[in-house]
Design goal:
By secondary structure, the chain is mainly beta. It contains four helices and 24 strands. 24% of the residues are buried.
């Protein structure tokens, strides 16, 4: 039999063992955190939008603007493995990380350098102003719509991409934002600074008398009088344009009569066009107001062409054009009772001699010499208590060789 003290010790040890066995528990699972930052090896700058893959879970994330990334892992893995890639840096396909390390890790990527073989490029230098591609030539038969008075050719230009206009009822236009005054206008080789009637509603060009109409959105030469917008070159009908004809046109603003006749064996052509607005005449006929007179304009153009042979021709041309506006207003005041009258008159004239020549009978190139004389007159009067008048008078001489 065991002594009592040994028995008590044995029973106490057994009891403690039983108590310990009943209170033992497994340690809780603590999530692991992998934190890191990706930088460029050369500069130490953070690399954003790098793709970071975790092999153990298949999870993927992108590095932030400061290059940082983070993964949460279940416990039990002593080591994890990463794959890091970026389009501008070298790839790290397999990187082992000790998951027990709690401090952030830093990974640097080498910048990629792309090399390509040298390339040689050869190209023909374009012309600074390829006028032959920019110029547009229109047939007179196509210039038939869009104007208030017959078919003004300038209205047809509004269909072109380079042309913009502030109003559908205004023949003036702009090229690439330039002023309408930056355009240059020619008729039979002579330059006209302002070819418009009634402030832009129509122009001195009448479709019934147009043989060739050429538009270019850039000056062709110094002969374009410094134009920075467009150049309009119009030539009247000649022997090569049509047979004998007569045309009468009735428009909203004016009426015109035009025609041409060949003489003899067809070596001489006489052409003429006359046009006048008639709203003022109708206004007068139905009883006009005493203080108002409607604006009016007129155009007379004529030419005689003599063809010597297939290589030489001579043309004598003339033009007369005018505008007139008169307005009177009654003024009643303590110091003066009466009327104030405003009037504006403009007249243009031109006399030209053109000689055309080409080297061979079948050549499409024509040389031309134009000698012209262009008188002009413009007056503005304002009368009331006093008469105030302004006027511009002069004559332009032209010698043009093309």
């Amino acid at each position: 039999m065991l002594p009592s003290r040994v028995l008590r010790a044995t029973l106490l040890a057994a009891g403690l063992a039983i108590i310990a066995t009943g209170t033992v528990h497994s340690a809780p699972t603590i999530p692991l955190k992998v934190n890191g930052r990706i930088v460029a090896c050369s500069s130490g700058d953070p690399v954003s939008l790098a793709v970071v893959n975790l092999y153990e879970t298949g999870e993927m994330t992108l590095s932030g603007s400061d290059g940082s990334f983070s993964f949460s892992l279940p416990g039990g893995a002593s080591r994890v493995h990463l794959a890091i890639s970026h389009i501008s840096y070298g790839e790290i396909p397999f990187l082992e990380i000790d998951s027990s390390v709690t401090s952030p890790i830093e990974v640097c990527l080498d910048e990629l350098v792309y090399e390509a073989p040298a390339l040689e490029v050869f190209a023909e230098a374009p012309r600074r102003r390829p006028a032959h591609l920019q110029a547009v030539e229109m047939d007179a038969a196509d210039l038939s719509d869009g104007a208030l008075s017959q078919a003004d050719p300038l209205y047809a230009l509004k269909e072109l991409a380079q042309v913009s206009s502030g109003s559908d009822f205004d023949g003036r236009f702009s090229i690439n934002g330039s002023s309408p005054d930056a355009n240059a206008f020619f008729l039979d080789g002579l330059y006209y600074p302002s070819p418009y009637h009634l402030g832009g509603l129509c122009s001195i060009y009448d479709a019934s008398n147009v043989g060739r109409f050429r538009f270019s959105p850039a000056p062709l030469s110094a002969s374009a009088h410094g134009a920075t917008g467009a150049v309009i070159e119009v030539e009247s009908r000649d022997i090569g344009d049509a047979e004998d004809r007569s045309d009468f046109s009735l428009g909203l603003l004016s009426s015109s009569l035009s025609g041409q006749r060949t003489i003899g064996d067809g070596t001489m052509l006489i052409s003429a066009m006359a046009r006048r607005s008639y709203i003022d005449l109708l206004y007068d006929a139905f009883g006009k107001a005493a203080d108002v007179e409607m604006p009016n304009f007129y155009d007379i153009q004529a030419g005689v062409t003599r063809v010597f042979d297939r290589r030489r021709s001579l043309r004598l041309g003339m033009l007369l054009s005018g505008d007139e506006t008169l307005m009177s207003t009654e003024i009643l005041s303590s110091g003066y009772d009466g009327a104030s009258t405003l009037s504006w008159r403009r007249a243009l004239g031109a006399l030209s001699l053109s000689y055309g020549y080409r080297q061979t009978d079948d050549s499409s190139w024509w040389g031309k010499a134009v000698l012209g004389l262009q008188p002009y007159r413009s007056t503005f009067n304002m009368s009331g208590n006093d008469l105030e008048s302004m006027g511009w008078y002069g004559t332009r001489g032209t010698l043009r060789l093309d």
